[in-house]
Every structure is written in structure tokens, then in C-alpha cells.
């Protein structure tokens, strides 16, 4: 039996009757609905809903998109993403071409589906995110190949300027990692990331501001200390010339990423993503304390404390070979300050197309 939350006519953005692509709120609503479309198209597949019984297509048809390709996991064959193409009516095509802020294509990724046909594989991917190993998974390789081929296409109708990427929860982590990978090569994509996981204790949920600040400073000092120790240890070991050259090319990965400004949407009531709020605020506070504190924070934010502890104890942690997925130097952070009834509501995708939410945005630029 279908849930009312899957039916576009019952819970979709009914207020969005006159779409303005220059309106950032409208952009957010459409991106969230396209992600919802991936959730529903996978549920249609699982429940064998076809024809008039399927519920997915209104989530993109309502905004004149066409789903042109499913992205399918090679392990459980679930649909985890899709590529959409904007197909506006003929009378609107003149305002959705040159100079418009409308995308020509959107690649969207869903998050974890707690249903029997997909839960096992999705939880496996969630664990990879916790272990900082999402980049080693076949699902991400499929996603990355799709994003890269669209973003770097020589066709005038594709390319980075005509492409958006978006995702929710685990799908937001996938979109974030894909966006970071391309940003390091100088390709910057318009990105809408909804409730992306931040792999850290949810310090932001602690009500006492002094306790929050103290815990974050302590965490930065410990992480930076372990990272510096590991760097010294690695420097003392002989390494092939190729590895030395690769290290020189990526001495400051944060600087290479700093020009990319993804839209990150978080809710303080969601313990999986709320630490993004403290992450950016704490970084600013550390930089204000002076160069030394700023250096400590830059060192800390590029490493996973869990991975460093495992390495210090001699436990193999082969997947921890790059900065954590959630580390992003610059971002537009959109915080939903509307009180949530529970975690499910705070983490849900539905909040991001509603028009009754209190959204506060701040832009954080890496210096």
C-alpha cells in the first residue's frame, strides 16, 4: 500500500505553481522533489507498481523534467539515482536557454531506504561512509562516472554550467564526494545537498555553548596532534618518487576546493547532519584566535579522528586515504530553524520543499 508521503498530489509543493528559476527557494524545492523522485521510483520497482499505479513520475513531470537514465547499483540492482533532462513546453523554451538559471540536466541520488529489497546494501554503504570509505564502493564509482561524463562533456548542451547535482542523506554524501572530486580539477557544479551525514559526535545538540566550544577545541587539538605525528612518521619513511610528486600536487586540498560553493541544507534536530553548523562556526572562531589556532584547525579538519586513532593503535585503516567526505572549505549553509517533532521529520526530505519553514542561510568562504 502506498504512503501518502509518496503521492505528489498529497504532499508535493502545491504552492509552486509559477516556477521562477531565478528564485533560490524554487531551485531548492525542485531539487528536493527530484531526489524524492528517486526514492519513489525505487519503491515503484520494489512494489511492482506500473502504469497508472506508479507514483514516481509526477515528482519530475510537474517541473517539465524527463528521467533519461536510471543509475542502478551493481550489487542489489536497486535504483539509487537518475539523470534528468529539462524538457520545457515550447512556449517556455526561450526563457530556459541562454542566460537562464535553469539547469539542462540534474543528477539526483537518494538516501537509505529501510525496505527489505534495499536495506542490506544501503546499510553497507552507510558503514562505508562512517569508515571514510565511500570512494572505494562500486555504487560511488557508477555515480562518479555519470557525473564526470555529464560535467566534462564536449556537447554544448551539457557541461558543468548546465548541470546540477543533488542528493539526500547518503545520496547527499555521494553528491558531495562527486562534487569535491571534480572541484579538485577546477570543475564546479551547482549542488543541493540535503541532510548530508557529518561523521562526528553531534556536539551541536549539546545546549551549553561553552561545553560545545570546549569539546570542539579539544577535538581539534587531539586530531591535529595525531595528524602531525603521522605526517612526521610518514616523512621518515622512504617513498617512491611518484608518491612524492602526487603529494606535492595536493599539498593543500582545501585551497583547491575553496572556490566550490555547494548549498548544504541541515536541520539542528538531525544528529546526522547538525554538526555542519558547529563545523563552520568553530572554524571561524579558531581562525579569529590567530594563525596558530587556525593552523591547528586546518590540520584537524582534513583528517578523521577515528581513522587517526586506529592508525596510532596499529590497526589497519586502508580506506582512510583522503580527507573525510564532510570536510568542505566553502559552502552556503542553509539551516532549518523550524522546530521538528522528531528525528524522522528533522532528517526527512519533505521539509525542503515546504513553504512554512524558517530557513537561515550563511555563506562561509575559505581564506
Automatic annotation (TrEMBL):
Residues 144-188 form the Fungal lipase-type domain. It comes from Brassica carinata. Pfam families: Lipase_3. Gene3D superfamilies: alpha/beta hydrolase. It comes from the Eukaryota. One of its GO terms (biological process) is lipid metabolic process. InterPro entries: AB_hydrolase_fold, Fungal_lipase-type. This is Fungal lipase-type domain-containing protein. The keyword Hydrolase applies. Keywords: Hydrolase. The keyword Hydrolase applies. GO terms for molecular function: hydrolase activity.
